[in-house]
Every structure is written in structure tokens, then in C-alpha cells.
User: Which sequence fits this backbone?
């Protein structure tokens, strides 16, 4: 079965340049998982590459560096580009997250805004323009370490995305609504007259968030043409039955895909959804890198129940 979101993968040009933001603003800590190697024996086109796993209280983030093959992207990817678009870090104090982003070399699209929920929201960009949402939850305990609230996917077909990921997680949709156009939504995302639909699925340790932008239209490449292209590369789900879950996702329409990496501490298979989202299924060889080893796997559910 699927046990939860294990990690979010981000391909970067320089792990060392990115660590200050991910360690300071996101509060992530490095975990030793061993040196990465090409996932397929015949894939020697890029050689060895670096992999750095970072732990939050309830999930991991994996930074991947492919050296010269990770070309620089000339323009920042807009928030309405289909694909894995961001993950969200949450804390009692959004101002604390904002200061840490700027101190670590990141930027904000707009200052934190209240969208009518009582929470504070902002989209940040790291040094390589990857989007990270920061969110302040005033009902969370002030002493609660920063955690990951969700990972977001922008889709061109909401119904198809929800059908697939609901089946993957074996959960129903946890809310769905239309949003915009409003000045606050436009300001937060740096768009004009944005009109979008949002939906959510509850994994065991965080939400999966989905957005379909009905306006403005996105113009540009939809899917990542090269897995070593900088940006969000994949979402990994931990399983206790790698072979069985791989077969189940293939039956749901996924195709086997060349992965970005393998590491000694994780058995894994890479698959691609019909819409081009890269999924990694992982079964830890070493319990130190399992979801069960994290310090606060249930933080999202606990805070939601107590608000």
C-alpha cells in the first residue's frame, strides 16, 4: 500500500547554493542517503550526479544536481505552468518564513496576503526560481517546527488528475472549488484576471493540491522535455510493496520511466502519468530514511483537527 508522500524531488544547478534557503527558511535537515547513480545501467549520458535528502518533520525534499547537464532556464516558470508547481512550508509565523527567505537569497512574488481564511500566504522563489509557498497558520503552536503542508500540481484536466491520484492514494476528494478573479489572487501569483479551480486529496502526512487555470492561458512547453532540466522533477510515494504498487499504477495507465536517480538506501521504480507527471515509488532499504523515522509525521492532521 501507499504509506504517504515520501519526498518532493527538485533538480538544481548547485545543491550548495540552494541549501541555505532549504535549511534555514524551510527548516530542513540533511540526511545521508549515499551517492546517487543513474537509474538505468545503460544510462551513462550524464555520469554520476549528486543527491541530497533533506528532512522536514513530516516528509523529505530531495535536491538533485546533474552538473553541466542541468542547463540554466532563461525565464522563471510561471505559477500556471502545468506540472509539479510548488510545495508549501507552514509555520505559526509567516513573517518568520518571509525573513528567512530573503536572508537566504530568495524572493517573494508579493508580500504575504490574507485571502480570507485568517492565514497568511505568499509565493517565494529560491535562488533558481523554483516556487515555494510560505504559509502562516496563526492557530498552530508557536513552538511547532516548520513543516510541509502540501505539494501542488497544476493540471490541464482536473477530473482526470483527481481520478488518478484518488486511486493512487485510495482516498476521496477533500474539497474542490472555483477561485477568482480577485485582486488578491492576482497579486499573490503575479498574474492578471486569474480564474482557477482548486482541489485537494489527503495523503497520510500532507495534502496533494491541484490547480487548473482557466485564465490566463499558459503559453509554453507543458511537460519537462529533459529529466535533468532544473525544476520540480518528481513526487515520491513510500510503499511497503514496491512490485505490487508498480503493477497497480501501470494498470492505471502509467508508463515505466527512466528515473533521475537511485540511492543505496531506497529501492524504487519511476513511472510517468498520462499527463507527464513523474512519480517515484520507494521502499526504503534503510529505516533511517523511511517516513516512520520522521519526527512528526502526523503534524498536518493534528493541527487541522485542533484549529
Assistant:
Amino acid at each position: 500500500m501507499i504509506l504517504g508522500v515520501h519526498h518532493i524531488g527538485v533538480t538544481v544547478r548547485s545543491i550548495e547554493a540552494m541549501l541555505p534557503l532549504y535549511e534555514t527558511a524551510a527548516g530542513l535537515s540533511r540526511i545521508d542517503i549515499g551517492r546517487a547513480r543513474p537509474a538505468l545501467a545503460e544510462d551513462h549520458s550524464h555520469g554520476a550526479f549528486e543527491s541530497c535528502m533533506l528532512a522536514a518533520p513530516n516528509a523529505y525534499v530531495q535536491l538533485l544536481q546533474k552538473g553541466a547537464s542541468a542547463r540554466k532556464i532563461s525565464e522563471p516558470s510561471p505559477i500556471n505552468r502545468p506540472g509539479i508547481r510548488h510545495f508549501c512550508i507552514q509555520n505559526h509565523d509567516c513573517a518568520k518564513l518571509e525573513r528567512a527567505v530573503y536572508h537566504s537569497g530568495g524572493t517573494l512574488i508579493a508580500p504575504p496576503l490574507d485571502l480570507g481564511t485568517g492565514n497568511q500566504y505568499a509565493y517565494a522563489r529560491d535562488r533558481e526560481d523554483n516556487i515555494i509557498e510560505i504559509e502562516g497558520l496563526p492557530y498552530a503552536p508557536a513552538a511547532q517546527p516548520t513543516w510541509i503542508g502540501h505539494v501542488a500540481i497544476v493540471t490541464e484536466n482536473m477530473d482526470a488528475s483527481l481520478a488518478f491520484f484518488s486511486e493512487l492514494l485510495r482516498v476521496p476528494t477533500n474539497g474542490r472549488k472555483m477561485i477568482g478573479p480577485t485582486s488578491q489572487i492576482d497579486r499573490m501569483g503575479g498574474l492578471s484576471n486569474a480564474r482557477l479551480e482548486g482541489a485537494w486529496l489527503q495523503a497520510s502526512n500532507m495534502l496533494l493540491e491541484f490547480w487548473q487555470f482557466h485564465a490566463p492561458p499558459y503559453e509554453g512547453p507543458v511537460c519537462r522535455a529533459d529529466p535533468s532540466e532544473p525544476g520540480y522533477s518528481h513526487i515520491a510515494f513510500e510503499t511497503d510493496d514496491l512490485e505490487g504498487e508498480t503493477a497497480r499504477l501501470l494498470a492505471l495507465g502509467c508508463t515505466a520511466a527512466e528515473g533521475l536517480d537511485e540511492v543505496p538506501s531506497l529501492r524504487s521504480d519511476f513511472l510517468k502519468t498520462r499527463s507527464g507527471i513523474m512519480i517515484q515509488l520507494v521502499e526504503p532499504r534503510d529505516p533511517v530514511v523511511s517516513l516512520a523515522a520522521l519526527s512528526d509525521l502526523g503534524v498536518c492532521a493534528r493541527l487541522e483537527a485542533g484549529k
Summary: Residues 38-46 have pLDDT under 50 and may be disordered.
